[in-house]
Amino acid sequence: MTTPLIERFRDRLPVSGATPVVSLGEGSTPLLAAPRLSERLGLEVWLKWEASNPTGSYKDRGMTVAVSKAVEEGARAVVCASTGNTAASAAAYGARAGLPVLVLQPKGAVAGGKLAQTRMLGATLLEVRGSFDEALAAARELADRGTHALVNSLNPYRREGQKTAVFEIVEELGGAPDAFCIPYGGGGNTSAYAQALRELGLGTRLVSAEAQKRPETVASAIRIAEPAHAAAVAASGAEVVAVSDEEILDAWRELAAVEGLFCEPSSAAGLAALRRGVVEGGRVVVTITGHGLKDPATAAAHAPPPVEVDADPDAIARAAG
Known about the structure:
The chain has 2 domains: 5-56 and 157-302, Rossmann fold (3-Layer(aba) Sandwich), CATH 3.40.50.1100; 59-154, 3-Layer(aba) Sandwich (Rossmann fold). A 6-stranded mixed β-sheet has the order 1-2-10-7-8-9, sandwiched between helices. Strand 4, helix 5 and strand 5 form a beta-alpha-beta unit. The radius of gyration is 20 Å and the shape is globular. It is α/β, with parallel strands linked by helices. 42% of the residues lie in helices and 15% in strands. The protein has helices at residues 5-8, 35-41, 59-72, 85-97, 112-120, 132-144, 156-162, 164-173, 188-200, 230-236, 245-259, 269-275, 296-302, 313-320, and strands spanning 31-33, 44-49, 78-81, 101-106, 124-128, 149-150, 179-183, 205-211, 239-243, 283-288.
């Protein structure tokens, strides 16, 4: 049985004996050696596979804490704006807690797998005619009225949960790597990693990879024009690297073909930065934030197509090359 994240890190989280633990078995995700990528890049590369969290993304780390505290504080419903992963996570943990969940998403900007998750998990899903930033502003205003608890990463409990990924990595490696590389959408995870490093007294390099064209990027999970945590990211000392969609897609395909990990495109942003040569040596941990099944349409559009062949062994052998 997986120990709930809150129980594993209770002494490092803002919880007490009065906090009800709303858990789906999040955290304790695999840290995988990447020998083939390491050889290609001339580095010791490790992959933190956050797609193995219950709803398929790292968001569950923060959501278990945010929803547990919402229940403790008497919330009757929760609300979030989302490009997809927060929505699915909020819907799952809200369902687990017995709380209604309201999701505001920018119309036409969320991958199909995430929409399916959120709908199946029973959340009320509203498509906002506008950007993510406009949807977030509306969610914040609704929360300010006292009717809903906001569970976006503006909620500090979210970042408290997300910092635990660093604790796990350092514990498993027996010390800090030389650098962390993570995607940068709203910046909540970058600020959470920076917080963990401060708490551990570490000065490890933190590379935060954003899309060059944020509002139009193919990587929908980081398609955020105005990062809510931009100031915190700047203050953290993280090195922000802007990568192109071509670099993201190349890293995404390489991760699948070379190391067998199928993630959503945004999750490969950290690897795209690493392939750029931002780290020149040592041990590096790349956080892979979400599963590829979150965004099957992009995979179908960019993966090699199947080859039609007769049911004949010789024809099959020829087609296989």
